[in-house]
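Inputs:
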Amino acid sequence: MTNKLRYFIANWKMFGDFSSFRIIQKTNQYLNKEKNFNKKKIVFCVPYTLIHFFKKKIKSKLISLGSQNCHHHENFGPFTGSISASMLKKIGTEYIILGHSENRAEGETNQIIKKKIASSLNQKLKIIFCIGETYKDKRNGKTFSVLRKQIKNSLEKKFDKNKIILAYEPVWSIGTNKIPKMNELQDIIKFIKKDFKKIFKTNKFPKILYGGSVNHKNIHLFSAINEIDGFLIGSASQSSKKFIDIIKNYYK
Ligand code: PGA
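Outputs:
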């Protein structure tokens, strides 16, 4: 069992209302009861509509709140229906998911993601930067080149890399119950870590999460890969039992 810091990040997507706070409450009760001390960071990335309300209710230091996107313009501006990083920061957001494939599918480019990362870093938010290949990319043997391009075209040398966590989420695995073969996944995670170091000439490996159909039944497969620093969990994070069982089974 590892004693390295592990992230369990809930991506609620378009889910939740005020009553969903009970999921956070139950998770907190579990964390408080836990006897085995393992370093972990729990983040709930919830819809914009819930951040302020949840922030006021969360007493625990064990749980942080995140958002799932922002507009690339950092402050106020003529962007109907949009929310900026500074607005999110003011209401209590600590983390922000950027570059999720569901937003890329809506037209978000690497260039736009770069601007979003820059404005979020300016606001001192911690970034969860998603990358991942489509099934077509995978079939055509393009996984590595696609990932490299997403990293190179969305990150800048001057960005504070300590504030950026990568999330490798193969698009074909999100919400499909399909997960990568573990030996392939390990190679990809190692590739990303090494390539990132090379591109940005840093001497530190980045933190990398895995995301895509993670659940309490398959989590033990991932826990065998030491290079994975944590998980970005979608549908299974919309239930306290499923989410807590993932954490429990990870350390079993
Ligand atoms: P999933 O989603 O766990 O429901 O596959 C993961 C994600 O989209 O981050």
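Remarks. The longest strand covers residues 6-11. The mean pLDDT is 96.
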